[in-house]
Design goal:
The complex is a heterodimer. Chain A has no helices and nine strands. In chain A, strand 5 (64-69) and strand 6 (72-77) form a beta hairpin. Chain A has strands at 9-12, 18-23, 35-40, 47-50, 64-69, 72-77, 86-92, 101-102, 106-110. Chain A is globular. Chain B contains no helices and eleven strands. In chain B, the strands form two sheets. In chain B, strands 2, 4, 5, 6, 9, 10 and 11 form a seven-stranded mixed β-sheet that branches. The chains are: A mainly beta, B mainly beta.
Chain lengths: 111, 117
């Protein structure tokens, strides 16, 4: 099963907003509202930012938001901060496999 | 507080075996789906094995027939038995679980497995 498609890298300046896309198919991203997003700093375990497309767990900043249109989910980070520099991964249920799918990951650089 | 602590990683020769452990606290392993995720050096995340609360287990093709996921309810611990290890299995291995379906709220710190002669 192929990974979900994310841009390899995105960048933005402090205070700006950026959006990371995650493209799948109607068997995964497009067909179900089971997309989640994770932030991973170097050498650390991933951290859940968003679940079920647009829900934030308790304790996650409201600068992080999620949405979906068709087969593409998106993570938006507003008011970029230096500590947002990290790798970001989407993750989705898929009806085509017994295992859920990760995206290939996006490296965010804060300029 | 939910906590997951992995152990058992290390340097192993190709063809060798290793067993990883993931000790859980703050919740009951048998009541949750438990997932193994790995990350090869410089690469992305790969979900390669899961055990559901009903006991069903699933594997990615890359590890099927070589890896076995299991749990010891009395020890509240998840295991990954890895046999016939290959260089491409070199990765940091994480155990993870969620508060609901199709999400991974809680992660261990990861344990590094290096397969090399």
């Amino acid at each position: 099963q192929s990974a979900l498609t994310q841009p390899a890298s995105v960048s933005g300046s402090p205070g700006q907003s950026i959006t990371i896309s995650c493209t799948g198919t109607s068997s995964d991203v497009g067909g179900y509202n089971y997309v989640s997003w994770y932030q991973q700093h170097p050498g650390k375990a991933p951290k859940l930012l968003i679940y079920e497309v647009s829900n934030r767990p308790s304790g996650v900043s409201n600068r992080f938001s999620g949405s979906k249109s068709g087969n593409t989910a998106s993570l938006t980070i507003s008011g970029l901060q230096a500590e947002d520099e990290a790798d970001y991964y989407c993750y989705s249920y898929t009806s085509s496999s017994t295992l859920d799918l990760f995206g290939g990951g996006t490296k965010l650089t804060v300029l | 507080e939910v906590q997951l602590v992995e152990s058992g990683g290390g340097l192993i020769q190709p063809g060798g075996s290793l067993r990883l452990s993931c000790a859980a606290s703050g919740f009951t392993v048998r009541s949750n789906s438990m997932t193994w995720v790995r990350q090869a050096p410089g690469m992305g995340l790969e979900c390669f094995s899961v055990v559901y609360s009903d006991g069903n287990t699933y594997y990615a093709d890359s590890v099927k027939g070589r890896f076995t996921i299991s749990r010891d309810n009395s020890k509240n611990t998840l295991y990954l038995q890895m046999n016939d290890l290959r260089a491409e299995d070199t990765a940091v291995y994480y155990c993870a679980t969620g508060s609901g379906s199709y999400r991974l709220d809680y992660w261990g710190q990861g344990t590094l497995v290096t397969v090399s002669s």
